[in-house]
Amino acid sequence: MWVDLLVEQICQERTAPYVVNDAWTPSGPAHVGSLRGVILHDAVARGLRDRGHPVDFLYGFDDFDPLDGIPPSIPRAFYEPHLGRPLCQVPWHEGAGSFADHFAAEFESVFRAVGCRPRTYRTSELYRRGEFDFALRLALDRAAEIVAIEREITGSRRAERHPVQVLCEECGRIGTTVVLRWDGEQVEYECRPDKVTWARGCGHRGRRSPFRGGAKLTYRTEWAAKWALFGVKVEGAGKDHMTRGGSHDTASAVARRVFGVSVPFPIPYEFFLVGGRKMASSRGGVSARELLEVLRPELVRFLVVRAYYRTAIDFDPGGETIPRLYDEYDRAAAAYFGELPARTPGEEQDVRDLARTFYYAWLKPDPPRPFVRPRFSKVAFWVQMPHVRVEELVQREKGAPLSDADREELAARAQDARRWLARWAPAWYHIAVRDQLPPEVDRLSPRQRELLRQLARRLQTEAVDPEKVQAAIFALRSELGLSSQEAFGAVYVAFLGKDHGPQAGSLLAALDRDFVVRRLYEASGEPVSHAP
User: What is the pLDDT of residue 507?
Assistant: First the structure.
């Protein structure tokens, strides 16, 4: 399982204690790719702890970065005057706090909902407390060297590139300033109107101390400075950062040559796409919060953990995606709880990997305990039947009273099923048992009617058990020379008025037995007086 393999490699190549770091700039709603990152790091931190190693899992909000774009979901006119200012100093338009506060809190609530428990920090606070002062001094003293490193790695020849951005004392912008001189205590800087295309500097020229919040490091140098400040041993990033000549290569060179620290164990992970589109928070798209409106937290975490980290996740909530994801989740749970038999060494390894996948997808602090797992597609059909008591059906399947954990799981599945039916489910999942005999039964063949008649006779004396009903229909299909589509289609027509539907056994078991027998007789053409 990929988490275990990564943990084993980390333990071979890096020494404990392990500082695992991840970070994100709260410049808008966090996209789903950022959620993949925090879940990945959380799983790796869990694996390291399980080996008995001390681990500090950090998550940073880079809120001292400038506002360089306006998400489409918020009022542009309000935020345009703030472009170029630190995110932590841009007011939120709907109440107290800053722009960064709003989106950081929103994303933190999401990743904690999916079981991630890092210790969080904000770069603005680190700068104001002076914790980056050592890095600012080093970057200013060796600015030419850092610029040369960046040009060497990236091939860029931008003349005004500098590793430090000063906070303008006149307009409060940090993305529009250029360092002109450094005397060892203060920087001379200029806030240029034309430095960037997305913000306009005020033209102020001045001198100030860069320390304790007076300036910040540019992204790639700041990344290396974090590694030095925290002693980071493990940090992954999306593959766009890990490409040759990309930001990770530059940060790595600055870390080694300027800060004199080792590069953390890198984990380059693939994109997370929804409906085939790469998401970006500044351009809209599906956010991490919106994903929780599609899937419950357990399924979100499983969706990420089940995929090899170097494989893209392309999630489309339409079609059969969510029922199949539930089936995979249930199979992994069965492996974890020792309910999945394996006959060969290869199967044994697959079962072990599935069990570990379920373990890393588990989001609660307490260890998993067995719980009922009625198939999601069944639950989706059951919740559409007003007279069906889903809990009673599940208890019948279990053959024992439901535990609190069983009820909690069943309630979550029922809620997911209703949400899925309302928004994502294909048309054939929407069913309604007809109160009256559907007129479509007139199209049934004599052999189909005979199947319904014989099934009714069996159910008069036998319990309506889902598996026994399925077996009975299969047996009658063979006896009468019908295809599976003709046999099961006859049952669906009798109750739904269409030739497709849920598992027939589950459908009939969910209904009152007297009603089932009467309807089967009626649809077969047998006199209703023969029914109970």
Answer: 84
- What is the Cα Rg of the chain in Å? 30
DSSP state of 264: P
| Res 329 pLDDT > 80 | yes
Cα(452)–Cα(437) distance, integer angstroms: 13
Whether residue 60 contacts residue 121, with contact meaning beta carbons closer than 8 Å, is answered with yes
CA distance 129 to 116: 27
The pLDDT of residue 528: 61
User: pLDDT tens across 222-255, in order?
Assistant: 999 999 999 999 999 999 999 998 999 999 999 9
- How many Å from the N-terminal Cα to the C-terminal Cα in the chain? 56
Give the C-alpha separation, 439 to 427, whole Å.
Answer: 21
Instruction: Quote the pLDDT of residue 276.
Output: 54
Q: Taking a C-beta distance cutoff of 8 angstroms, is the pair 43, 115 a contact?
A: no
Contact 428, 388 (CB under 8 A): no
Nearest alpha carbon to residue 60 among 10, 2, 132, 163: 132
What's 296-309 look like in SS3? Answer: CHHHHHHHHHCCCC
From CA 459, how far away is CA 216, in angstroms rounded? 76
- Backbone conformation region of residue 84, classed left if phi is above 0, alpha if psi is from -120 to 50, else beta: left
For residue 441 the two structure tokens come to 């039964």
Residues 39, 116 contacting (CB under 8 angstroms) = yes
Q: What number is the average pLDDT over the span 324-352? A: 92
| Angle, vertex CA 490, rays to CA 457 and CA 465, nearest 5 | 50
